[in-house]
Request: fold
Amino acid sequence: IRNKYGLTPLHRLQDIYCDADWVFYADSQQLVPTKELPSNHSYIGPIIWAPDVPFPEWWGQLDHGKPIVYVTLGSSGQVDVLPVVISAVKSLSIQVLLASAGRFSSKDMPPNVFSCDYLPGDEVSKIADLVICNGGSATAFQALSCGVPVFGIPSNLDQHLTMGAIASAGAGALLRAENVSVDNVMEVVNVLLGDERFRERAMALKANIESYDPATIFREFLENCLLKNI
Reply:
């Protein structure tokens, strides 16, 4: 398409992401810092979204005296790691809320695992002590916007990039999908739940995320563009 319209090819990934008249980063600058940012680039802040779905029937059965771990690999996580994750958490004194996105089901769920196809991730993150996800920005920022540490199991590039930044900030941990085993999942879960520093760093990022208002920033940008063109 670029050749057809006489445009030069884009060879580098950062050019493919950022070749535009205006570029907005749906990120926190504290979490993903940059240097010498071009004048047409700016941060809009994380865009938090969750599906409008009802709570499952088992929602009222939860024991809020035990740690709650929200697990979802979404539509793009490596779903074959879910049985390993479930095997790892079944012996822990926690409650697991599993949203499978319709990609996984089992008739033999452990008694501490509550599952369904979809959950309102923003509301679940509010009561969670830990979120296990594919490390991508959608679920990871849901968790951080509630001050909850993230255990990311990434399998593609954008998930690795997001989760790498979160792990570097001390607000979570990354375990590559190809390295998942019962033992190392148990170890990471215990570390993230047992060390309050992860929660503290996630809470610091929560405060930073709250300083952004993406809808207002983008609306004001559009209004200014329209005014300039009148």
